[in-house]
Amino acid sequence: MESTIRQDKSVDRTNSRWLLGLLAIAILLGIGFRGFELDRKLYWHDEAYTSLRAAGFTRQEIDDELFQNRIVPAPELQKYQRIKPGSTAADTINSLALEDPQHPPLYFLMARLWMQEFGSSLTASRTLPALLSLLSLPLMYALAQELFASRLTSLLATALLALSPFDILFAQTARQYSLLTVTVIGSSLLLLRAVRLQRWKNWVLYGLSIALGLYTHPFFILTLIAQGIFILCYCLFFAKTKWRGHVINSHFFLSVIGGLIIYSPWIYVLGTNLQRASDTTDWTRVAPGLLYLVKLWILSFTALFFDLDFGFYSIWTFLARLPFLIIIVAGIYQIFHRTTSSHRLFILLSIFVPFLMLALPDLIIGGKRSAVSRYLISCFPGVQLVVAYFLANSVKNRQRFWEFILAGVFTASIVSCVVSAFADTWWSKDVSYFNAEVAQKINQEAIANRSIKDTIVISDRGNDFTNMGDLLSMSYSLDKDVRLMLVSQSPDLEMLNKYSAPLVFRPSEKLRSAFKRNQLRLEPVLANARLFRVRRSA
């Protein structure tokens, strides 16, 4: 009997060492992936705007300077990605307030300070979000401990976050999304501790986390609303006494008011530039249809664990993600049935409130806000927590099957991260997805024409004034011999006649009409990327 007990304990210790070793390796790999090949992927349109705003420029002043029927070498665009001479942090704030008021200034000011210290290279720009993303790991561990009081579940949640293909992808993106993940997890942890400990210092820290979150991204408000609903329900149904519920509710209200007071300067900016904010987010109001939304929801939530793409219209893309979708649903089911009522409520609200606040308007009035994966960041820590809880409980039963499932989840994440790490572009690059292919094609022409220096690319502001961002994006990849003819409304024909077959990138309708009036036609070179060659009509 004693021999059997000793043998069982030995097996438990062996399993425990194996599992802890696996989780440690997963966390270290996740940290390593965040710093691997930072300069490989194309610098996305939005990342170029991060550098532009941080440097103190406005889009309008760059457009007015560039698109004047002039020819500029592609590398010359890089000057708009470096600190504007004579500018200050006030210029960064002013650039956002005038042209991008829906983006609060915190991350952009951090990026400016980082640029001043470490330069504006791709590696430097992306190192900042990669380092910020590391803060989310200890916070996730602490949050899981607060909810489950289980070392295994906490380590598993941390490992899932560390190796998440989605989180690694945006940790290597020079935008504020990794900081948003930090504030979502951090504010959740501070709120739960404030409720449990009932100390004024915890409520003050929670109020500061609200201000930090709102100054990071406007969609932090989704997390704040979910937390508000949790506090309301907690005070009504779970507080031990009415007095305790009243105290918690009052402290939460005061913390929110304090956070909003700190954020009030940017509330004023938003209020005075509301139309500008609305105009720059018009693209989210396009209604793509229910099937499109459902597909993107599946892709977004499963990208936390698996992110290989076989084509948006391929059934294999969705079949490969089905096991991960099943694990998420199983985790939600187990959380609902096995955890304490208040913790269950907190986790489920953190997932479903942000999601429904984006999805319901899309379904009722039309739009695709919930189809934008990065807009769902408020939901994702909750999803990782339910999966960690489900897998931890399953593995604790010492069933070999669940050990294979756990190893399979980590293997899928690692494979996804490896493939992504060596790719030039990825789905997250959005409108800039084809820019790497465009730059490669233009560079091939530059190499072929190097002896006669005949490579010219024509572009204007574009139909929606977004061409400048993508030209900045490609300037990191274009050959030094590539020259850009940046036109206002119509090309200078005398200048154009010097080139045998120039290329055109994303011409606006006005530019297309100007070519047609001058008996010039556009021959597709890369149709999806809207790269054309100018030919004379017969």
Into which percent range does the helicity of residues fall?
55-70%
Along the chain, the helix and strand elements come as HHHEHHHHHHHHHHHHHHHHHHEHEHEHEE
For the largest beta-sheet, the strand count, sense and barrel status come to: 6 strands, mixed
What is the approximate shape?
globular
Strand residue percentage: 5-15%
Give the uncertain stretches in residue-range form: 1-12
Fold and architecture overview:
The chain has about 550 residues and is mainly alpha-helical. The protein contains 24 helices and 6 strands. It has helices at about 1-35, 45-55, 60-65, 90-100, 105-120, 120-135, 135-150, 150-160, 165-170, 175-195, 200-215, 220-240, 240-270, 275-280, 290-300, 315-320, 320-340, 340-365, 380-395, 400-420, 435-450, 465-475, 495, 510-515; strands spanning about 70-75, 455-460, 485, 505, 520-525, 530-535. A 6-stranded mixed sheet has the order 1-3-2-4-6-5, with helices on one face. Strand 2, helix 22 and strand 3 form a beta-alpha-beta unit. Helix 1 runs parallel beside helix 20 (about 400-420), helix 7 (about 135-150) runs antiparallel to helix 8 and helix 12 packs across helix 18 (about 340-365). The protein is globular.
